User: Fold these one by one.
Assistant:
Number 1:
Amino acid sequence: MATKTVTVSWGKPNIKVRKVGETEWKSFATPVEDSTTLECEQGDKLEAVIEGGTNEAVKYKANKYTLTFEVRQVPERTDPITAVDGVVEGEYQILIEPENNAANYAFVQRASVNVQLSYTAADGFKRTYEFSSLTPDSGEQVEIGNKEKIEALATAAAGAGA
């Protein structure tokens, strides 16, 4: 029996950001192990309930996405995002490059960001970056695909107001 190869986007990601309207990417330091997550909050469910308690129709609103990761804060690093008490001005685009460049990449055209500072004796100072996706002018909130597809989308969105 032949084995089937699958290319999974796991491992150490390279996360880059830029302000919406800019063209230059800025990289984050490698995130703290197992801290990088892309979570989906299912859109609200609307039900048309009829007598007897069954539905004659169901509709869902759009999902919401949140990208979260932690980066250790050390004097040798400069953050690509400036926050004051967690508040970050403007909107950002995010590019997630997988460890294996043959795996799927991800691109978020528009997101707002919040930053939380924390400290533990085990990890020292860390910042948690939380990006909440916003509806782009076209396409998905989170686009995934091979390197060529995602780089083309990111190039098309560069300098645009998304």
Note: The chain is about 5% helix and 45% strand.
Number 2:
Amino acid sequence: MADPDTLIKARIHYYGRERYYHSMQVSAVEGMKRFSGDPAFKFFYGMALVLEGRVQEGIRELDPLQSYSEVMLGSLLALIHAHKLCLTVDKEAVAVYDAKLKEERKRADDQALYYAGVFLLYVDRVDKAKEYVDRLLKINPQSKDGLVLKGWVEVSQLRESRNKNNALQYFESVLKTNSRNIEALFGKAKYFELCGHFDEANQASYTLRTVHTHRLREIKENHLNLRLASP
């Protein structure tokens, strides 16, 4: 069985991709309560507030996260994005964040690049997310989080172009070593759905439901955006 923090993060990612930002916040708060030492949940919470339009609250949550190396880069990107959404843009604050971002990006490790890439993907800056995840995989080619993120970046590009790409290979590379990886299973099902391969999508979805039945109950079936053909 996957670790509880991994399963909570999988829910957060699902809600983020589907733009259910309030549900994303609820799951992030659950993670914050259960895993108070993990700044990722605070980052996801602040991000979800911004994406829902609660910009000032999001800024307050994200600003202290600059002291956590693993989420610093993502937090800076989110803070810049949030300030630009304000009616009156604090150009001085944006300039400070931007300068810090440029410096931190030079020495960012794979974790920092991962959370930055996640944020960029969820605000539809897919090309920029690809840039970050490609650099991540140069640093750590075996990163499971990086490979899954790369797969989802490719899926996002597939949504836009409808031209088949390499998304599947990234999900499969993770599933070879962990056949229960929920994010890779979701990604595999989504890839086949977008390609119109409904038999394969059904199989991937069946595997997902078999392996993670109790967790999928927490995500209402009408939220599952897998438009699969009937068996």
Note: The chain has 13 helices and no strands.
Number 3:
Amino acid sequence: MRLLNRHFGGITLQQITPERIRRFMRDRLEAGVSNGTVNRSRAYLSSILSSAIDAGIWAGPNPCLKGVIGRVRPFREAPPRETYLTPDEAERLLDACEPQMFRVLITLAIHSGLRRGELLGLLWSEIRNGCVHLPASQRKSGMGRVVPLTIAAQAALASLDRSPATDLVFHRDDGRPFTDLRPLWQRACERAGLTGFRVHDLRHAAISFAVQRGIDDFRLMKVAGHAALVTSQRYMAASPAHVAEARRFLGPPPAEPRGSEVATPPPEDAPGCDTMPRRRGTEAHRGWCPARTSNPLGAGETRTRLTRIGLFPEIA
């Protein structure tokens, strides 16, 4: 917000023109930030303008929305990072974590897939019955969820002493919450010989391990807290284990053994075949019809049979 206020403060909404927004985006690129960071600032500004329109403060239009003439388009972003820890790298990382509370935090991240904010804000009152019960408030997806804890995660949490000063699971010695994990994280990565990893990559690792164990996409969506199934499917498609599993589906199928016979249904226009549409689930749909069977009893018996399967009403 301070960034936007520095560039757009002191002017009216009518003066926030597409050219002024583009100039702001170019200045941010020249300052060395990434395309994705600039797009986030553009999206935040767009939400402010849309809120002003909805509140009747401004007539618009919002120059960042689709369909608006002269729309300010976002920059093209690089594809998302696909970084995954191997089980050996995860073990080395845990051995390198200090102090004990930070090691427990990283253990819980690898074994649960909780987000960084969910870990730092986790309360002891939210851990019960072998699960983490996350309320809907202050969650990224806006929905609460229940995350089961592995035996290793439960053992790690049991090794911590609860502080009488706070209900937070992870905190400083004086009870204040953690705000910056980078110093501890960078030191642990250096000791483990890992480069290019972020704390958020532990969530990718947890999801990747779950995929390797055969979790289905719907259950993964619930545990990971994804708002849409397509997000879970994207994680599964990018997982190295999931891609390797696709190997058994590739290549031509095995050839049919010679001499095998396959029954084929007769064509619909074959002689003696009744092509009248049949209701699914009825005896007629399953193959019985007067044109295909001998009917020595005549049309009356035929009508009786059709009455029995519901094609004619009962006769008083």
Note: The CA atoms of residues 161 and 198 lie 27 Å apart.
Number 4:
Amino acid sequence: MDYSPGRITGARLGLVRAVAAEDQVPLANSDYRTAIGQEPRFLGHIVLSTCAGHKIGTHNSMNDLLIAGAGIAGTALAIHLARRGHSVVLVERGRFPREKPCGEGLMPAGVAALERLGIDTAGLGAQFYGIRYHCEGHMAEGHFLLSGAAGLGRGIRRRELDAVLAEVAAKTPGVTLHTGARVTGPLFERGRVTGLLVEGQPIRARLVVGADGAQSRLRHVLNLNRASRRKRLGICRHFGHLSAAESRGYVEVFLGHGHELYVTPLRNGEILVAALADADAIDGRIEELFRRWCEAQPKLASLLRNAEPASDLLVTSPRSGSARRRVLPKFVLLGDAAGFTDPITGGGMTQALQSAEMLAQHLAVEPDWTEGFLESFDSTREKMLLDYRRLTSAMLWLGKHPPLIGPVLSAMGFVPSLFSHLLSVAGGARGLLGCRRFISTS
């Protein structure tokens, strides 16, 4: 087995069950492979092996960075640091391509972050100019503030985005990507995390990063998890062959009783329909509830009248949570693993890309990687996310007070500049007071 930099190991190319059982994501459509076709395109260099035959081997030398999780945050960080000359081991228990429940709307700041990684987003997804909110006859429309390409979001399927990021990481000298490899726990030496046990084999590094997602195993094992007080369920499905021929240049959000529906435009004329719902609003079979919610929105029902499912129904819960601490000596949580805010405002993928780039920049200016720099990074990251979290809390509060939703949407319709400003807050480009939240110095 070749573990040289720039290789992917342990993956068998093909369609796979996307999410493990412990992620609480049941898949519910046996016609999935027929709906999306066979053998999705994946260009990274892959060493094929079966799961049973996969061996991690022993990394005798000390790596600079060891990352658990090859999602958006983990792969972005690996690429940034390897390009700065660091050795990175990236460990992923799944295989690419894979589906993942997600709203799949990347805000303009996230598009810019992908471009800085050298990824051409034009061929990856469908562009959108803003977001429209609908509720009982009221509609508010907001555009992103920046003009031209800098003001465009992209609707990108996660199976494609994750595969592209993994491909770029695999081709980056200095990165070793193991797929189909499960992290069984952290390594401790003198009271510090010094590495990970991967398939029972120890791998050590100067810095260990937990980027293993919203249900982070490392966050739980290290007793850093803080349970979510509000239980929300996420449901999504892709559709093709749509009835309406109108241009879909917006993410459309339909507000219902106890739930919201998000419609994201994707390439090849497809859309994603995603629902977020309070757990107490779930009564009956999830697939039937999802269908009823869609049919209760006339515009969405018309769009889906003759549509065909293009993916399984994916379900995940909970959709918010936090960590008691996000950094320890020589260890940092990144992306959703560091605490994930309810996705009602749609900035999760953008935040993952921005926080990964921010951590890379902190590591670049602190060559010795002393303990204090992680605290400094965490403080800067929290400042970047603070206004986003305030906006999310306000949206969740509004959702609990349905009589106020209509008047608020009407007010936003009369002051579109305010709505556009709030979209920029949600997308990570601005703070509530108008300042830029994160500017890359790459």
Note: The first strand starts at residue 7 and ends at 9.
